[in-house]
Structure formats: structure tokens, C-alpha cells
Design brief:
mainly alpha; 34% helix; 3-stranded antiparallel β-sheet
């Protein structure tokens, strides 16, 4: 009986090690899935900002087109004869969770685009729509610039 005294303990330790490895793998997979989801949200929110900036620019009365001076002007545009809401709200950056965005300014000082302030490396590196082809092989989320430039 003395020779078999530690066998159950050895089996228990092996099972604990296997469970630890499985738990770490599951955690890695869930973190990866969460980050990919945040990436998809960043693409959606960035496009919404770019489209709102485009609509603001194109909706400028007269022939002299102008970018909004601040992002808040996208919420309620009082320049046309009727009030226009380009965005429902100012969205938070899904990757950083912050309300602060990097701003791309035009030569006149208006907001022509936004970008995330995250320095993380994106998972997605290819397969972007044509209007976002500049995102291919970006090194950081900061390189994903959602900018509207008229033709």
C-alpha cells in the first residue's frame, strides 16, 4: 500500500495543470474576440464620423464649402434653413473607451477627420472596403484615419 500512496495526488496535480492550460486558452480567445469586436465598432463609428463630416461639408450653404470647427457642430447644424442632426451623439472611441479622439484638421482649421488615440497594433490588416484601403497593414490604430476629402 505504501507504493501507491502518492498516485492520487499526482493525478490531481495533472488535472489542475490541464484545467489551468484550458482556462488560459479560453481567456486568450475571449480577449481576442473582444478586441476584434472593438475593432469592428471602431470602423463603424469612424465611418459615421467621416460621413457626418462629409454631410456637413456638402451641406454648407453657398459655394464656399467648410468643415465643422468642432465635432460638437455635427450634433446640431443650424446653418441651413432647417436644423440638421448629422450625428445623434458624440461617440466614444471603442478601443480606448475614451470620449477623446485624435482630430485631423484642414488648412483652415476645420475638422476633416478623426482617429483613435490607441497605440495598439490592430488585428485586422487587410480586406478593408475601397474607401478605407489606406488602413491596409497599419501599425497602430492611430494610423486608421477617418478623413473626408472632397474630390
Amino acid at each position: 500500500m505504501r507504493k501507491e500512496g502518492g498516485f492520487s495526488y499526482l493525478i490531481a496535480m495533472f488535472l489542475v495543470a490541464v484545467l489551468a492550460i484550458i482556462s488560459v486558452r479560453a481567456l486568450e480567445n475571449s480577449l481576442t474576440a473582444e478586441r476584434r469586436d472593438k475593432e469592428a465598432q471602431l470602423l463603424m463609428v469612424g465611418k459615421a464620423y467621416r460621413d457626418a463630416i462629409r454631410d456637413y461639408y456638402e451641406g454648407t450653404p453657398g459655394t464656399a464649402k467648410a468643415y465643422p470647427a468642432e465635432l460638437e457642430l455635427l450634433l446640431l447644424d443650424t446653418r441651413p434653413t432647417r436644423l440638421v442632426r448629422r450625428l445623434r451623439k458624440l461617440y466614444r472611441d471603442p478601443v480606448t473607451g475614451s470620449a477623446e479622439w485624435g482630430i485631423v484638421r484642414s488648412e483652415s482649421g476645420g475638422v476633416m477627420g478623426v482617429f483613435s488615440l490607441s497605440t495598439q497594433k490592430p488585428y485586422k490588416s487587410d480586406g478593408f472596403p475601397i474607401e478605407l484601403m489606406s488602413f491596409t497593414n497599419a501599425k497602430r490604430y492611430q494610423d486608421w484615419r477617418f478623413v473626408y476629402q472632397p474630390n
